[in-house]
Design a protein that fits this description.
The chain is an alpha/beta fold. The chain folds into 4 domains: about 55 residues, Arc Repressor Mutant, subunit A; about 55 residues; about 55 residues, no CATH class; about 160 residues, Ribonuclease H-like superfamily/Ribonuclease H (Nucleotidyltransferase, domain 5), CATH 3.30.420.10. A 5-stranded mixed β-sheet has the order 3-2-1-4-5. Helix 15 links the parallel strand 4 and strand 5. Helix 4 packs antiparallel against helix 8 and helix 14 packs parallel to helix 15.
Length: about 375
Amino acid sequence: MKRKPRIYYSDNQKALMWERWRQGDALQKIAQLFDRNHSSVMRILAETGGICPAQRCRSRLALTAAEREEISRSVVAGCSIRSIAASLGRSPSTVSREMKRNGGLEGYRANQADQRAWDRARRPKPCKLVVNRALADIVAGKLQLHWSPEQIAGWLKQVYPSDEDCQVSHETIYRSLYIQARGALKKELLEHLRRSRNMRRSRHHTQKTDNHGRIVDTVSISERPAAVEDRALPGHWEGDLLFGSHNSQIATLVERQTRYVMLVKVAGKDTASVIDALISNARKLPQELYKSLTWDRGKEMADHKRFTLDTHIQVYFCDPHHPWQRGSNENTNGLLRQYFPKGLDLSAYPQEKLDEVARQLNERPRKTLNYETPAQRFHECVASTG
């Protein structure tokens, strides 16, 4: 097979790549636009960790190409520096420095001077985490605890509200991780992100859909009371199974108001095993804090009537192929992949280990809770029911 010649992408082609990448297109789909393999596009995007580099622009204070052309013509005409400066509305020292940098009276050329100024302007502002190593150490420590960049940024604002030197945006943290040329955070810290990719993906990247089977005699989510829908009251949970290798799984439960997480070890994905485990777990909480459970239409909940009969907890079911109707649980399952990557045998983990992982999640500050933790919110609910 004849090898394709190496391609050198133009600025317009690269701009198209970045636009399609922001829209969430896969590498292979983008590469097809140029009749290339995905590795050809990845080479371009990976240079900056999947983060589109900022477009360069000239400072509004800098001399323009037209002004430099006017300086060049005035020099040929024998005009003085002061008269040139007056005609441009610039300081004489500005014109004087411009000429000294670029050949003086004899050698000044507008085009060459303009290109040199553009080249000299390649001086990126140093990253805040490079300048402030103490702050970088704090960020690195929180990343090692599996905090997200957004949680770290929010927590810093809460802890140091009046000290901007001790604050950093989540975008700066991401860029420091994905753009290693910044030299602020070690690449090894990427593995502590919830999705340990080598490049940052667009938020529009295609999400998987729910493919569980159907069950009968369900109570639709449309019949769920409004107080559950708007998270006005605690005690309403969302649940699902998180799957591993060798037909292993764990049940994941999230309280809608507080985002409090419980993980339940289950012996199998058959409905008897799942329902037995959920009933046993439900008895650990007072009735006031466990009033309803929203699940998808997986066959593991086929015996949902037995669960309701034994616990007095009503089960609501999402519409088919609408996993976002239990969005808190979907998000939590994404977080859990940090601890339980795909392909891992989940049956090897005892309940004590699952409780420890749940504790770590519950002690992370959450943006949706104004950077309080689910544990704080849930314990307040426990105290109020006591």
